[in-house]
Amino acid sequence: MKKLTEIIKARLSQGSRAVFIVTICILTLSFSEKAMAQQRNQMVRLAKIQVDPLQLEKYNAALKEQMTTAVGVEPGVLTYYAVADKNNPSHITILEIYADTAAYKAHIETAHFKKYKETVKNMVTSLELVDVNLVGSAKKPGM
User: Fold this and answer.
1) Which helix or strand (DSSP H or E) is residue 73 part of?
2) pLDDT tens-place string over residues 32-75
3) Which residues touch 17 (CB under 8 Å, ≥6 apart)?
4) What residues have CB less than 8 Å from 44, skipping those under 6 apart?
5) Are 92 and 62 in contact (CB under 8 A)?
6) Residues contacting residue 46 through CB under 8 Å, at least 6 positions apart
7) Which of 12, 32, 62, 110 is exposed most, by the fewest CB atoms within 10 A?
């Protein structure tokens, strides 16, 4: 980065440098606004699922297959996190983030999602879907 700064200083006059810096700032802000607008359009949902404890291993395998496939092949499926209650592993909560409502609607029509629903229909004893708004997020780079 230091080398780039030196090159820019050497190549640009004082006035040109100011224009360049303002241009970079405007581009940075426009990308930030675009990211914020995309985040506002996202559909975020919690799926609270209770699974028959005797079928938990089969359920988890079907869930992992569905999640991996969806994130891998559907551009509108952005994130899945599935967690199990430590005291009751058959109580599973899934955080799902889609690019928008249209991406979610497309997702539930896919063959892999329909296969998942068919596979787990006799394993799930309770399902609650809760639409939520993402208040904030933080993660380490590269994660």
Assistant:
1) helix 56-73
2) 444 444 557 899 999 999 999 999 999 999 999 999 999 999 99
3) 8, 9
4) 95, 96, 97, 98, 131, 132, 133, 134
5) no
6) 93, 94, 95, 96, 129, 130, 132
7) 32
Q: For 37-41, which contacts have Cβ atoms below 8 Å and span 24 or more sequence positions?
A: 38/99, 39/134, 41/99, 41/100
Phi, psi torsion values for 61, nearest 5 degrees:
-65, -45
d(CA 24, CA 26): 5
pLDDT digits (tens, 9 = 90+) for 72-118: 999 999 999 999 999 999 999 999 999 999 999 999 999 999 999 99
Angle of helix 56-73 relative to helix 111-120, nearest 10 degrees, comes to: 170
Rounded to whole angstroms, the Cα distance separating 101 from 99 reads 7
CA dist list (Å): 93 to 5, 38, 39, 52, 85 = 48, 24, 22, 15, 8
pTM of the model: 0.71
